[in-house]
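ENTRY TYPE: paired fold submission
RECORD: A
CONTENT: sequence, then structure tokens
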Amino acid sequence: MKKLLNSLFVTQPDVYLSLDGDNIVLQKEQEKLGRVPLHNLESVVSFGYTGASPALMGYCAERNISMVFLTMNGRFLARVIGESRGNVVLRKRQYRVSEDETQSAHIARNFIVGKIYNQKWMIERATRDYPMRVDVEKFKEVSQQLSAIILEVRACEDLERLRGLEGQAAISYNKLLDQMILQQKEDFYFHIRSRRPPLDNVNAMLSFAYTLLANDVASALEGVGLDAYVGFLHRDRPGRASLALDVMEELRGVYADKFVLTLINKRMVSKDDFLKKENGAVIMKDEVRRSFLSEWQSKKQEKITHPYLGEKISWGLLPHVQSLLLARYLRGDLDEYPPFLWK
């Protein structure tokens, strides 16, 4: 159980939620785990299938407290609300901003600042932890390039220019990603990003990690009442969760890339875990995919201190916190969307 930004996150498995007066009661089997006053809450987010009492849902619906239900793995199931009030206002604001490219750029540039800042952090961390195994001079040079690009991004008000700057940063960062692979170099290497299909072991893992992260972010956005398919940097395209792709930009390197590098460098995967198809596509074997998912869920339980909130949360709650912050910005409660800047 964790209370953040007037939202209660119930992350323990098999917890039933009920109402006692003006309090929400968390119960597992016959044991009461805790009770939280409802009068200051805006939403309750529950991971798992156990459910909530009709009395609690009715109470929350009457007072405009949303209840969000996700699987233990973070897949969105449902969002229960009463009469459409705050939710419709939030989405109308989201749609208006998305239609205005200048306003969209003001939000999008913070996603990009977060992405480049976190890539720079990974580069600096590599020079500190492995000075004898990476080209420190080259890493420092790219770090300075990324710092310069961040300054340009912060002043940019044009979406096309933003995309160009993001592309420049990606090229510089990708040149060093291969050096961050410290083990099994013959079988795991990164020369260029290949997506459809992935053409090597590393790209196969990155594609799967990005898919998982996009799904987690989309669930978080739906949980706060935003439309995951209407973005600001990524424009509308049928079937594409554009806003999820926006928000996950700042998490790609520090969350997904770092996760894949850890699996390789700790020898938790090997060349025998992959298959190459006739068209050149490389895929993970089914049993390895299941192991990958298990490790991903374990990663989501690890604790970090959120740099903006100054509170300890799990990695798995990070998409939900960023979604809440984005919703607050769109409502006018924050002057600027605060990207996740890892330290």
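RECORD: B
CONTENT: sequence, then structure tokens
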Amino acid sequence: MILLQLIYSGIALGMIYAVIAFGYQLTFATSGTLNFGQGEALMLGALVGLSLVGQGVNYWVMIPLVCLFGFLQGALVERVGVRPAIKTRSEFGWIMATIALGIIFRNVAENVWGRDDLPFPSPLPMSPIQLAGANVLPMELLVVVGALAMMLLVELFNRRSIYGKAFVATSADRAAAGLMGINTNLVITLSYALSSLTAAFAGVLIAPLTLTGATMGAVLGLKAFAVAIIGGLSSGTGVIVGGLILGIAETTTGFYISTGYKDVPGLVLLLLVLAVKPAGLFGKTAIKKV
């Protein structure tokens, strides 16, 4: 069944969008800012992973190393680009800073790894398996399981650890959290670190299914932002649903209509959501008391 195969591929693609969009949620919750270099964090994770695998590092050993790299890269972005803008209360400073850092990371990647797209060896067999009457790649199954596992681990971190509780408190009310003795600056740094960690992890998940290169993250990061808006920047369920909708819409449109139009359904949905429910399908509209 071709339709079922397209749905399977769309689910895998959509879960990658959801993981990256989840990273947008992490930073927005604590600081009201977004890392517009999320796509570049994904790209760097994939390329660093490719280099490690090329040096003989096992794929499963490589994953935590890439996650550590993403964590440090995200912390660097917050310290260099976001914190100065927050301190000076610059309304758009963090936007330009994260975009600028993303461009810098992309240029560095082009100089280190070159401009050509590179194949990423798959840790699983590339022959499809039968699932409910349709073929699905083992790597696509790993993408779905890995993406859900990553989001679940971050949620458990937020609910069970002391740092996670500080994270939740800062999300609820940053000023009140600061008065209670919570180092909100550290929490914001941690949110950016976790955001880039999830993006880097997404990079090594999707890399074996596509080509790896310095420009691979630009479109993925932009589409994940659309998913975050569609689902709602305050809803974990929303980003999963939004990611699945966008992923399936792209694969089915690309096959049944034309690959040149596969981006259209998602953008149309984004415009409709912004017009009807600006907070997103599952988002909550914030009410400010004055």
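NOTES ON RECORD B: The chain has a mean pLDDT of 87. Residues 1-225 form one domain.
STATUS: closed
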